[in-house]
Specification:
Blueprint (H helix, E strand, L loop, with lengths): L7 H7 L5 E4 L2 E4 L7 H9 L2 E4 L4 E6 L3 H8 L12 E7 L5 E11 L2 E6 L4 H7 L6 E4 L4 E7 L3 H9 L11 E6 L2 E6 L8 E7 L3 H12 L5 E2 L2 H10 L44 H9 L6 E7 L1 H9 L16 E5 L4 E11 L4 E8 L9 E8 L2 E10 L12
Parallel strand pairs: 3-13
Antiparallel strand pairs: 1-2, 3-9, 4-7, 4-8, 5-6, 6-7, 9-12, 10-11, 11-12, 14-17, 14-19, 15-16, 15-18, 16-17, 18-19
Length: 398
Amino acid sequence: MSIGTAFHPRTAPLNRKMQWREWSGYFASSVYADAHDIEYNAIREAAALIDVSPLFKYRVHGPDAERLVDRVITRDATKLRVGAVYYTPWCDEAGKVVDDGTVARLSETEFRWTAAEPQLRWLRMNALGLEVTVDDVSERVAALALQGPFSRAVLEAATGESFADLRYFHRRAGRIGDLAIDVSRTGYTGDLGYELWVEAGRAVELWDRLIEAGRPWAIRPAGMLALDVVRLEAGLILLEVDYTSARHAVIPEQAYSPFEIGLGRLVDLAKQADFVGRRALVAEQRAGGPPRRIVGLELDWAGIEALHLAQGLPPVAPATVSRTAVPLFAEGGRQIGRVTSSGWSPILKQAIALGSVPPAYAAPGMRLAVEWTVEARRGRVPARVVELPFLDLPRKRA
C-alpha cells in the first residue's frame, strides 16, 4: 500500500479533493487546486513547491566511488567536479537504457545518485571488485523542488544568502536557520528552479519555512498534472511513457538506446572507462546510428477542430497530458512511429507532442499525421516536426 512522504503532513491537508496518484509506493498529489492550471501558472509565473521525495536516492562513497560511477553512466565521471551535477542515462550490456537521473558530486569520494526506479542491486553488482559502498537513502532524504521565475528570490529570502552564483546543474550546501539543506540547481520543469535535499525528519520544517518566505511571491504547491505539462513543454522524457526501461522490455522494440530518446549528447564514447553498454553503442553508431529518433511535434489546431466539428462538437484543447501512445503516420500514408506524450501548452498556445520516428522522418519541418479520437471515431491530425525543446527559457540557465 502507498504511504505519505515526509512532506505528507503538509501536502495532505492542502489536497482538498484527495486526488492522489501512486509514485514508487508513495502518495503524490495530482492536483491541489480545483484545476491544475493555477499550479501550472505558479511554475511559469511565480514560484511552486513540488514534492519529489519518491525519487530513489543513493549515497555512493568510498575510495573507488568515482570508478563505479564511471563504470555505470554514459558520461565521463572523471570530469564531474565537486559541486557539479550530471543528468545522465545508464545502460545494460546491450546499450539499452535502464534509467536516467542525476549524479551529484558531494566530495572527491562521495556522490548522490537519483533515479526513477530502484537501482541498488544494479549499482552493487557493478561495484564488484571496487572499494565503494552504495547506501539506499531514499527514505532518509526528502526532496522538494522549488521552481519558477521567483524561485531564487524565495530561496534567498529563506536562507538569507545569495544563490546568484549557483550555476545550472551545480549544487552546494545551505542552511535555513539551523536547518541544513543541500541545494542543487536542477529540476524537471524547464524553468529557473532548485531541488532541496533535507533529512526526512525535518522535511516539514523546510516546507513551512519556504511557504512563509514565499508568500510575497505567491508561492503555492503544484502537483503531478501541472508538472506533466511543464516537462512536456521542456521536451523532457518520462520513463515508462516516452521510453521503456531495458529492465522491463519484453520485446526488442521496447528497449531504447540513449541515441533513440534524445540522450545521445550525454554519451561519451571516447571516455577512458569501459562503461556498461559501450561496445553495443559503438556498434550502433558504426552501423549508421539508431533506427528511430525522438522528435517534437506541433499539431495543427485546424485539424483538431475539424474532427470535433464533424461530430457536431465544439473543439476542446486537451486539459492534461496524455501518456497513452497513439500511431504516428507519414503524411497521407502508413504508420511510421508513435506519439508517446501529448498535450496543450498554455504558454505556447499550441498542441504539442513527443514522437518516435525513423531517421528519415526526423528532420524539422517534416509533415506527419497523428491519430486523434473524437467520440470513439479515429481520425488524423496534421503535425509538423520541430526542434526540441518546445519552450527554452533563458532564465533556467541564467
